[in-house]
Amino acid sequence: MAHQAVSSADATTEALLLLSSTAGTTPPAPAPLLVGAPRRNRFAFVCATLASVTTMLHGYNLTLMSGAELFMREDVGLTDGEVEVLAGSMNVFMLASILAAGWVADHLGRRRTLVLANAFFVAGALAMSLGTSFAALMAARFVTSVGSGLARVVAPVYNAEISPPSTRGALSSILDMFINVGILLSYVSNYAFSGLPLHLGWRVMYGIGVVPPVFIAAGVLFMPESPWWLAMQGRHGDARAVLLRTSDTPADADLRLGEIKRAVADAEPPPAAAARHGGGAGDWKQLLVRRRPSTTSVRRILTCVLGLHFFVQASGVDAILLYSPLVFKAVGMASNSAVLGATVAIGAVKTCFILVGMLFTDRLGRRPLLLASTAGVATTTAALAVTLYVGSTSTMSSSPATAAACLASVLAVVAMYSIGYGSVVSAYGAEVLPLRLRAQGSSLAMAVNRLTCGVVSMTFISLADGITMPGCFFLYAAVTAAAFVFVYTRLPETKGRSLEDMEVLFHK
């Protein structure tokens, strides 16, 4: 009776709750393999983890420059302007692959797109380690950025589509944890190889990035394709087979398949045709040109997703990740080993608090974490600005106390950033976008994310020269305060809702 009631219900949260409450008392007959299985699906966790590991390479390559540039300046003869451009160029270069990633993911599939991303990571790491001029390094940075763009768009889409609603928040946030693992490993690499000869150390830092993508790509080949993509291709039998392996119960799998079929049937034009003819251009035209009541909620969704991705980077956290050595040197840390050791602490704190945010995403919800994160980042960034201001005007600017206060402020910023901004934004954007715009919408959101990040990272040194380094962080604190208002007034809670229920939620 319970299963029959669920099958006839709409794809709503109440149906999911009913399934969860009855699964233990009325075990489905055709699935003896699931008797005694844990309530949370482990196979979905493995799949989401494999997809997310690719984003670790993005984090590694993006922030490796923070320490490597200390040695590249002298070895290659880079100027301050060239370092600024080289550090931030990856975010701008990523726009090309980000905007194409939606079409590629719809055309090739999520899994093969992730394999392609790893191939670009291999080529980019090899080219960076062999670069001998600014032009060669910029070209290598572009190759790496293609892989980064594909990974940053497709991994969250795959995770949202493979995960059951009961754990979608946590599984979608895994990729943010791996990005930060990559950031931590880049800082460790900076520190570990800083003692090598000048011409060799930074090349080894990049060269070791050639090996991991090979093994990651091999692992990705063993995970199943997204059931959503399979259904978009009309392969409903294959989609159901994947859902049976990635759902908490067979009843959940049938419910999810029914929701997917309805979403595919309602899409105009059909998703498979859209993927073959421009990746859904008709949907964008319908959304941006035509005014129909059915598109009101989708426009609200896009506004929220794009706004969130803008604010998460306008907070200035990448200025800390990329230029923390300059920040620490501004308060008197003169030794390269001390500076690079401090960056390792940043990576460790950021990774730990990402894990905290991931664990609480499905328990507390997305909205509370985002509110706490934006308020915390605004406060701690302002504290960092005050610390830098006092350090720059005080006769004790080079004291250990000032350096310790600066490090504590930086660690507080990255901690508060990680519990919400760093662990929720990608998951929130991927889950609220409707099927017909999910891949392309994620591409557009990530384009806004990377463009904003590129502006921040490519202007920090120049901006600090103009309004001082404390002035930069006061500006970032003000922007993050505005982000708190945006989250409070615009973003609804999505915890526990099915992917197909989002348009209804945003229509209210």
Automatic annotation (TrEMBL):
Pfam families: Sugar_tr. One of its GO terms (molecular function) is carbohydrate transmembrane transporter activity. GO terms for cellular component: membrane. Its main location: membrane. The keyword Cell inner membrane does not apply. The chain crosses the membrane at residues 43-65, 85-105, 114-132, 200-223, 301-326, 338-360, 369-390, 402-430, 442-461, 467-488. SUPFAM superfamilies: MFS general substrate transporter. It is a multi-pass membrane protein. It is found in: Membrane. PROSITE patterns: MFS (PS50850), SUGAR_TRANSPORT_1 (PS00216). Keywords: Membrane, Sugar transport, Symport, Transmembrane, Transmembrane helix, Transport. Residues 47-495 form the Major facilitator superfamily (MFS) profile domain. Belongs to the major facilitator superfamily. Sugar transporter (TC 2.A.1.1) family. PANTHER family: MAJOR FACILITATOR SUPERFAMILY (MFS) PROFILE DOMAIN-CONTAINING PROTEIN (PTHR23500:SF450), SOLUTE CARRIER FAMILY 2, FACILITATED GLUCOSE TRANSPORTER (PTHR23500). This is Major facilitator superfamily (MFS) profile domain-containing protein.
